[in-house]
Amino acid sequence: MQDEMNGSNDGKIGLFDSGLGGLTILKAVAKDLPLYDYVFFGDTEHLPLGDKTEEEIYSYTKAGVEELFRRDCSLVIIACNTASAETLRRLQDTFLATEYPERRILGVIIPTIEELIDSGAKSALLLATKRTIESSKYEKELEKSGSNITLHSVATPELVPMIEEGKLDEAAEAAVAIIKVQIERVGEIDTIVLGCTHYTKLKDALRRAYGVAPTILSQDEIIPHKLTSYLDNHPEIESYLSRNSTRSIHLSSHRPDYDQIAAELLGGVMM
Known about the structure:
12 helices, alpha/beta, 4-stranded parallel beta sheet, about 50% helix, disordered N terminus
């Protein structure tokens, strides 16, 4: 199927996540770039992706991206570290190249790696889901960049359920305890990378706990300015984007508690 744009200035920015954590990225991006139109699709029917096979992750992510394309998105951000780690390159090189050559799919890991390098970090600790850690995507990208940053990675899947249940204090205490163990194990850490979109909700508590050091890198603070730079550097994409300041949220499976979770992730209000 050859991709056809429906004319100029009619493309929206889509965000895909396997659950609801990517709503924190939607909130941050829409705040910095308020004029564009945004569509969020959360594949809540199949969450979590962390316990799925690589082929399942690819299939569900591809279906989510296609859903956003059907909703007139010309640019899609995979706001999920697990999906970015497992499927992004494959989607870009095969599915996108043959089916939708005029559209674009971006992830959250490469921008985070770039921010980590630009921060001047020497020894960093990555907190992420089990599948993201197992993929070694962060380590591989750091190696490709030629960086000499030492990256220590630890899987912290127990944090996501606590965050989605609104137990932010409990999740922050658990994160601090995990970080303490890692620092005791590896020595000095100058930067902590929150490698899951859910973990953006912990950044303030971690900064209160640690002060100015170590530095806390949170993806909701990284993706907006990286997207701004991308659009500045790709006017052929930016020119397709519509500007009506609309936001819409869609889930593949709904539960009553998702409304409250979504509101909390968006800062207390639904868009």
